[in-house]
């Protein structure tokens, strides 16, 4: 039996709703609400409370992700991409209809049946003669009144459902071929097989069925591994204009680590609260099999048992270094209290906090107060490895009022190194700064390319010099910036550094992941510790490799006050929300004169230079101080060039007529002195 649709279905009038317009209005309201919340947050000094409130707000955003309703006639979901639907004008009534269901004809002709079909509501269970799906009684269908032929509404209007209104495109998109085809998707930019919606107006615009119906907002849950887990919902964006990429410092996908295509119209998922961007194919890859490529890169590709002495970087803090890792003596082992070391003319005295007693504590405590401490702007650098000398570590100091100190482990450096990765053909000999064949003991390390006036391992024949840290550079490491993969030391690299994004010199040693083809500068890997203390912040600052969550605004360095690219490595305080460049991090006394724009590297250029020594020469009346040039030093008295951010020699006694010269000029003048040309004779 069958009967027409019941009269109560027409007792209320229905209105046509533009679903995408309605959703856009809701989004505007959400944006206004977010702006109000943001204004409130700016006036709230308790940042931790703001972070806690974000969780509830994000849940609301997820639950409001797109309209979802059920058609009263066909029982199928009403999707936002179908754009139009009918709903009852009475607020107390929840009747909704697909636009095509609301406009269903009471009679229709179908190509699969010779008789006209009538819209009916059977009182018995029935089966669709097209899709063979069983239906319960009172489910609407088209039925032939002359024979037992019935089809459900879904099959009857299938042609209508092949057309979608997608917000990413101005024209209608039609599923021209109901069968799977191999085609390029205009959303994700990849070629894959499946059902596609195509534009008949624009040539070449096609959306894969899976991409076309991606959620407008989603969360990356914790099952996607910590590497790309994000607490905020990601919003789909149907383009990523080049201007936006440049403004955001050319970000990389936070899932796969690769950059974004130059094509501006490829879709991405992004966080509206942070600088978090991801390819559409990467975010959805755990749900869709055709988008799984590349995710296995986070799987550990080595066994710890195979590398028992593997160095895991970055070091925890500034008290760690490569020489300490290799030559540190455990507490309790006998060491010399008074040491005569070849590198210095005076005997050295051991200072060890662990061996304090009543007789020595007051004297040693006064010396410990002079140890390296960024919080009090106290700077003390080891003359051997150029790393800070902290009060918590044993070290030797010259008691003759010299500024000469050595870590305990730096006094036991081997006299030579065989088979160094950068110069395996010759043995490298340990040479101290007081006998280095370089002007004022300054050389450029062949590995990190940084100037240094500490101890060196060198090949005299080839004039090959490396500093102590690079002298013992490990051949294999792991690094938190690229977790779970082994990094090997290689020569002749090609590409940019994964940490600082600067180019890697093709003649420089570099750490490389041969799986992902990424490189890391030796200085970035070995000199940046995981945590530092700085006088600009009362909390420890953590090394970060990616933009910080809940930090959507621009980044600026608290020291040099220049902009900061959050996709490069930098130090950040989560409590105070302050950031500093890695190149500015070692600065203590120099910070007020340092300018980031002069530094083309992510490492402070003079991190391996110990300033403060005195240079006495017959060319000038007064002794000259070895220092870093500042803006106050003005121009070199010889070449007339600016001295800011250069190694210089300056006179502190010449008050009225400032006297300062560039390191290179001083070296040249020293040669000229052999011809009896004094500095004062050069209009200095």
Automatic annotation (TrEMBL):
Keywords, A to Z, come to: Repeat
Q: Where does this protein have compositionally biased stretches of type Acidic residues?
A: 23-54
- SUPFAM superfamilies on file: Cysteine-rich domain
Boundaries of each DC1 domain copy? 112-156, 167-212, 228-283, 535-585
> Does Lipid metabolism show up as a keyword for this record?
no
Q: Can you say what this protein is called?
A: DC1 domain-containing protein
Residues annotated as region Disordered? 22-54
Report which residue ranges the record marks as coiled coil: none
Concerning Pfam families, the annotation shows: C1_2
Superkingdom of this protein's organism: Eukaryota
């Amino acid at each position: 039996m069958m009967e027409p649709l019941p009269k109560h279905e027409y007792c209320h009038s229905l209105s046509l709703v533009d679903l995408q317009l309605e959703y856009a209005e809701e989004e505007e309201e959400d944006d206004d609400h977010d702006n109000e919340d943001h204004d409130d947050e700016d006036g709230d000094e308790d940042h931790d409370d703001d972070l806690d409130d974000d969780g509830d707000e994000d849940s609301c955003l997820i639950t409001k992700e797109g309209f979802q309703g059920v058609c009263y006639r066909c029982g199928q979901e009403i999707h936002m991409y179908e754009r139009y639907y009918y709903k009852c004008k009475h607020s107390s009534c929840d009747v909704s209809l697909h636009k095509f269901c609301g406009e269903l004809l009471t009679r229709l002709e179908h190509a699969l049946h010779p008789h006209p079909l009538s819209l009916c509501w059977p009182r018995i269970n029935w089966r669709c003669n097209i899709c063979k799906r069983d239906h319960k009684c009172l489910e609407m269908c088209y039925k032939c009144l002359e024979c037992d032929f019935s089809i459900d509404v879904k099959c009857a209007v299938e042609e209508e459902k092949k057309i979608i209104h997608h917000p990413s495109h101005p024209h209608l998109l039609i599923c021209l071929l109901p069968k799977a085809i191999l085609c390029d998707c205009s959303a994700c930019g990849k070629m894959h097989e499946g059902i596609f919606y195509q534009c008949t107006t624009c040539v070449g615009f096609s959306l894969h069925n899976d991409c076309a119906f991606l959620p407008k907002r989603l969360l990356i849950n914790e099952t996607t591994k910590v590497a790309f887990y994000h607490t905020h919902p990601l919003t789909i964006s149907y383009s990523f204009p080049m201007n936006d990429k440049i403004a955001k410092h050319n970000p990389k996908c936070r899932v796969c680590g690769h950059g974004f295509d130059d094509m501006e119209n490829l879709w991405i998922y992004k966080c509206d609260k942070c600088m978090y961007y991801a390819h559409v194919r990467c975010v959805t890859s755990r749900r869709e099999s055709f988008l799984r490529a590349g995710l296995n890169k986070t799987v550990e590709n080595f066994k710890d048992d195979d590398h028992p002495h593997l160095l895991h970087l970055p070091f925890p803090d500034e008290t760690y270094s490569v020489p300490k890792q290799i030559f540190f003596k455990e507490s309790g082992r006998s060491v010399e209290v008074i040491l005569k070391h070849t590198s210095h003319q005076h005997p050295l005295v051991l200072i060890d906090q662990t061996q304090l007693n009543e007789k020595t504590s007051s004297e040693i405590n006064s010396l410990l107060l002079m140890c390296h401490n960024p919080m009090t702007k106290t700077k003390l650098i080891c003359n051997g490895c150029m790393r800070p000398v902290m009060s918590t570590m044993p070290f030797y100091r010259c008691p003759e009022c010299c500024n000469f100190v050595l870590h305990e482990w730096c006094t036991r450096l081997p006299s030579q190194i065989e088979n160094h990765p950068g110069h395996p053909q010759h043995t490298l000999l340990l040479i101290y700064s007081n006998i280095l064949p370089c002007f004022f003991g300054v050389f450029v390390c062949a590995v990190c390319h940084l100037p240094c006036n500490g101890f060196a391992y060198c090949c005299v024949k080839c004039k090959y010099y490396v500093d102590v840290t690079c002298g013992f550079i490990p051949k294999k490491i792991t690094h938190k910036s690229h977790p779970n993969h082994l990094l090997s030391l290689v020569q002749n690299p090609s590409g940019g550094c994964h940490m600082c994004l600067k180019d890697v010199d093709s003649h420089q040693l570099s750490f490389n992941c041969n799986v992902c083809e990424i490189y890391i500068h030796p200085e970035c890997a070995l000199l940046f510790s995981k945590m530092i203390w700085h006088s600009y912040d009362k909390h420890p600052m953590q090394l970060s490799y990616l933009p910080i969550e809940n930090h959507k605004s621009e980044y600026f360095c608290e020291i040099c006050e220049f902009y900061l690219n959050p996709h490069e490595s930098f130090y950040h305080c989560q409590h105070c929300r302050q950031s500093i460049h890695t190149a500015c991090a070692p600065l203590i006394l120099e910070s007020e004169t340092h300018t980031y724009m002069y530094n083309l590297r992510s490492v402070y250029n003079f991190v391996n230079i110990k300033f403060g020594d005195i240079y006495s020469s017959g060319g000038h009346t007064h002794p000259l101080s070895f220092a870093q040039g500042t803006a106050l030093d003005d121009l070199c008295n010889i070449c007339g060039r600016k001295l800011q951010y250069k190694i210089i020699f300056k006179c502190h006694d010449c008050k009225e007529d400032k006297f300062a010269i560039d390191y290179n000029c001083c070296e040249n003048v020293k040669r000229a002195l052999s011809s009896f040309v004094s500095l004062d004779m050069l209009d200095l």
